[in-house]
Amino acid sequence: MKNKTINHIKRILKHKKIVLCLCIKTNYIMMGLLHDLSKFSIVEMKESIKYYNAKSPIDEAKEQNGYSLSWQNHKGKNKHHWEYWIDNLGTKENTALKMHFDNVIEMFYDMVSAGKVYEGKEWSKESPNKFYKQRKHRILLHEDTRKLIETLLEVLEENGLNSTLVKIKKERKIIKKTYYMDKDERSLRMIMTANTGLNYFE
Fold this sequence. Notes:
Layout: H1 2-25, H2 29-34, H3 42-50, H4 57-65, H5 69-77, H6 101-119, H7 127-135, H8 143-159, H9 161-179, H10 183-192
Helix pairs in contact: 1-6, 3-5, 6-8, 8-9
């Protein structure tokens, strides 16, 4: 139990360190400091230590019990998870709310970091997009949120992590403004910026 506790905490800290580094490089310092703090809560820590192994303790708990109390707590307190933004499941329509822009960026960093932690030296710039595509069919996202996260993953796959971070830092205000536009405004911006490289929503 002691070794599981130590190894689990090391894994959390490694994940948080990677996210923090990504956030610092793109001026999201507070986001990086606050990322995944709920993992230190009793409900998440207890279950994660119990089911700690080479893969996700949450997945292990689900396999053995059919559910994960840790995950129920985690997804309800961390806005960078798309599940946080599902409000109508089973009650009205299976639709997703539009995630806040900064939460999408944090989701992207979370995907990058999780891949680096679990894949280690096997991780590559293609890994996050491959992981996403394998699960895309069961991920509920608002159409604008999906377009943004898929664009980030594609830019990463094509240009590498450092170039993607530079692009986020340099063009964040423009991308964010475009993200919150309605479709008509966005179409107009696409026409006006056709030759500038600002093609995130084409």
